[in-house]
């Protein structure tokens, strides 16, 4: 593994010179240099130009583009161009094109139309990768390789015969015998017992519901098939150019998409975790949009194991793929980019650098828009580039998170099956609600996989972790006995890795830890809420989406009960003392204000011996975001005001590295950003 070790914050993004007359390239690169761009990703969708025919190759245009960038000291992330095969290839090899779940073979004319299990695609793509690697291995501009692009964004599933064969091989490797598969899938249900692996097919459209574990294993296989394409490309690159880092761009946290790849499994395959993130929604206020950014950035940092990560794509302004594509108002780009950097990114890159004038993404924003360099968008990008350059001293610093939130793609996929008790919310909605509340309560949250080492965290949240093993319950109980605080929500611990429900009552794997027992789920329809009240009758929160028929053990404290409805009087919030720690159970999804109050209450007890966070009240009551990055004895406090009211920060002696100003107290004007260097305590 060759680790990415930058000496400056990477600032740049996608440049597609092939979309422009060559006479315009030099002026474009000059504009990028003016904006302090120091890195460009090149060649993402260039296969048809690099290989215009089966036995034709043309690298001259790419040679020229890379030379222009190098003249301006702009580093290159060179993509392998395998994201979309040329039309001649797809016509010559129609069997390589995607077949959807209804049996329709996708036609030529869009991007990423290739089957992850296609042998002929794999062979052709690796030939291209080797050609690129051999040509550019010693190029002075080359800084990093980038395999493919957004693997699985449009071709996460293919139901062709190649995929079916590969799926059967994957199942043999997982289960070894057909008897074990039948047991894991509960295949006796609906007379689905298989006599051999050859009888198993991908879960395409059928008469009614597919077996949930069949679908879950298919999702696992599809993620692994995409990963295999990345790894195959990476191995060619490492063979030819072993000293150059390799990555690919993940897609973590955009909108309500759960995603089709298990990036916890993928993380070890890259030399630096890279992510693309786009905010979703026109009606959202900027404060709500920054919550989307925080979710994605914290999730990406967790996948990276806490290490600095690479923001490969975010939008300078509007995108091209939402129903109404929101344009960033003046000043928002600065705050958006700084938010990702605050939360652990050591790179801030865009799609795209120069706005296309044709094709499906011609209305996707760029730092050089259609209006050219005499534009607000370009002037803001130039100012941002100046400020990002001043963050070089913070390179390699890391975010210190006090809270772990356990999330898992496999668990989310299982919750998506249409036979669940409710499909009225998205699988990560519980985790997002918890993350929003905890962030507003002043916590810095790492999203971690349930198998990760959690020993450094004093507060662990388990939000809707539907699948898990019994060992996790034992580990969390051991942590609580040593003083940790554990919060478990509804829909956690219900089933094992095969989606087999644990008997004896809910929440399954966590019953002993929590001292509660659920007899039945009672999901709520959209728009319906139920009040949870304290023993004194005070309202604590409004429960949404979910209730349970629940009883608490004698030693478990009931902190709230339902005030009305069929389950009036039953527990709505419990707490059990476990050694020197505590374990809470939350059998619903609280309203935002109620969840914030609950998060603040639990956090006040999570670190009883330490001083309260001086920023907690400010973050909870305003639209200010505060995140700390640390290295050695130095702390960088990123303070971003997403609101329209000036605020005063708590006393903090240090230097704002964006302005050079030193002070012991700070005003943070509406819309402003400060990065204050101080001594870490």
From TrEMBL:
Residue ranges occupied by any Glycoside hydrolase family 42 N-terminal domain in the UniProt entry: 14-390
The Gene Ontology terms for molecular function here are: beta-galactosidase activity; metal ion binding
InterPro entries, sorted: Beta_galactosidase_C (IPR013739), Beta_galactosidase_Trimer (IPR013738), Class_I_gatase-like (IPR029062), GH (IPR017853), Glyco_hydro_42 (IPR003476), Glyco_hydro_42_N (IPR013529), Glyco_hydro_b (IPR013780)
Positions binding Zn(2+) in this chain are 115, 158, 160
**Residues covered by the Beta-galactosidase trimerisation domain:** 401-603
Q: Give any Gene Ontology cellular component.
A: beta-galactosidase complex
Residues annotated as domain Beta-galactosidase C-terminal: 623-677
Q: What is its EC number?
A: 3.2.1.23
Q: Which UniProt keywords apply?
A: Glycosidase, Hydrolase, Metal-binding, Zinc
The record places the active site at 150, 313
Q: GO biological process annotations for this chain's record?
A: galactose metabolic process
Residues annotated as binding substrate = 111, 149, 321
Q: Which Gene3D superfamilies does the annotation name?
A: 3.40.50.880, Glycosidases, Golgi alpha-mannosidase II
Task: Give the family from UniProt.
Answer: Belongs to the glycosyl hydrolase 42 family.
Q: What is this protein called?
A: Beta-galactosidase
């Amino acid at each position: 593994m060759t680790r990415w070790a930058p000496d400056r914050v990477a600032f740049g993004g996608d440049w597609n010179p092939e979309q422009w007359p060559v006479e315009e390239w030099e002026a474009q690169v000059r504009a990028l240099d003016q904006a302090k761009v120091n890195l460009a990703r090149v060649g993402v969708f260039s296969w048809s130009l690099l290989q215009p025919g089966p036995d034709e190759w043309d690298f001259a245009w790419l040679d020229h583009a890379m030379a222009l960038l190098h003249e301006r000291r702009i580093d290159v992330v060179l993509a392998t161009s395998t994201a979309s095969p040329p039309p001649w290839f797809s016509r010559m090899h129609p069997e390589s094109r995607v077949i959807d779940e209804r049996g329709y073979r996708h036609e030529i004319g869009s991007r990423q139309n290739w089957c992850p299990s296609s042998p002929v695609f794999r062979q052709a793509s690796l030939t291209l990768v080797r050609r690129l690697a051999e040509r550019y291995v010693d190029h002075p501009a080359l800084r990093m390789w980038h395999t493919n692009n957004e693997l699985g964004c449009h071709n996460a599933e293919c139901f062709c015969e190649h995929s079916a064969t590969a799926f059967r091989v994957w199942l043999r490797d997982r289960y070894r015998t057909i008897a074990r598969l039948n047991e894991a899938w509960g295949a006796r249900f609906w007379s689905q017992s298989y006599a051999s692996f050859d009888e198993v097919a991908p879960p395409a459209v059928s008469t009614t519901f597919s077996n949930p574990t069949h679908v879950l294993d298919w999702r696992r296989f599809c993620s692994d098939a995409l990963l295999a394409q990345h790894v195959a490309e990476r191995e060619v690159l490492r063979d030819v150019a072993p000293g150059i880092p390799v990555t690919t761009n993940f897609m973590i946290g955009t909108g309500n998409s759960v995603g089709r790849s298990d990036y916890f499994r993928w993380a070890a395959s890259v030399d630096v975790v890279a992510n693309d993130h786009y905010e979703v929604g026109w009606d959202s206020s900027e404060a709500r949009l920054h919550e989307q950014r925080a979710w994605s950035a914290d999730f990406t940092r967790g996948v990276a194991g806490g290490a600095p990560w690479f923001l490969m794509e975010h939008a300078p302004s509007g995108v091209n793929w939402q129903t109404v594509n929101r344009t960033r108002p003046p000043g928002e780009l600065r705050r958006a980019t700084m938010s990702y950097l605050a939360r652990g990114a050591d790179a801030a890159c865009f799609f795209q650098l120069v706005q296309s004038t044709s094709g499906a993404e011609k209305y996707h924003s760029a730092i050089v828009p259609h209006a050219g360099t005499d534009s607000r968008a370009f002037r803001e990008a130039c100012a941002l580039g100046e400020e990002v350059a001043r963050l070089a001293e913070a390179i390699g610093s890391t975010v210190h998170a006090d809270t772990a939130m356990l999330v898992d793609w496999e668990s989310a996929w299982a919750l998506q099956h249409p036979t669940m008790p409710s499909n009225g919310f998205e699988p990560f909605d519980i985790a997002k609600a918890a993350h929003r509340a905890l962030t507003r309560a002043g916590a810095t949250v790492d999203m971690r996989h349930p198998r990760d080492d959690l020993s450094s965290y004093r507060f662990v949240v388990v939000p809707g972790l539907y699948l898990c093993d019994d060992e996790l319950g034992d580990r969390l109980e051991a942590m609580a006995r040593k003083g940790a605080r554990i919060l478990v929500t509804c829909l956690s611990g219900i089933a094992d890795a095969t989606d087999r429900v644990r008997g004896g009552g809910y929440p399954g794997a966590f019953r002993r830890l929590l001292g509660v027992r659920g007899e039945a789920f009672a999901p709520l329809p959209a728009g319906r809420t139920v009040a949870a009240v304290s023993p004194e009758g005070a309202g604590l929160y409004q429960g949404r989406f979910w209730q349970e028929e629940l009883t608490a053990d004698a030693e478990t404290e009931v902190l709230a009960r339902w005030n009305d409805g069929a389950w009036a009087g039953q527990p709505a919030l419990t707490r059990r003392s476990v050694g020197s720690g505590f374990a809470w159970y939350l059998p619903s999804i609280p309203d935002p204000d109620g969840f914030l109050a609950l998060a603040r209450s639990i956090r006040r007890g999570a670190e009883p011996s330490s001083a309260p966070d001086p920023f907690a009240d400010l973050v909870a009551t305003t639209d200010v975001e505060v995140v700390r990055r640390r290295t050695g004895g130095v702390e960088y406090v990123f303070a971003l005001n997403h609101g329209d009211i000036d605020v005063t920060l708590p006393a903090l002696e240090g230097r704002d590295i964006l302005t050079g100003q030193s002070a012991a107290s700070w005003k943070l004007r509406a819309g402003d950003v400060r990065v204050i260097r101080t001594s870490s305590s």
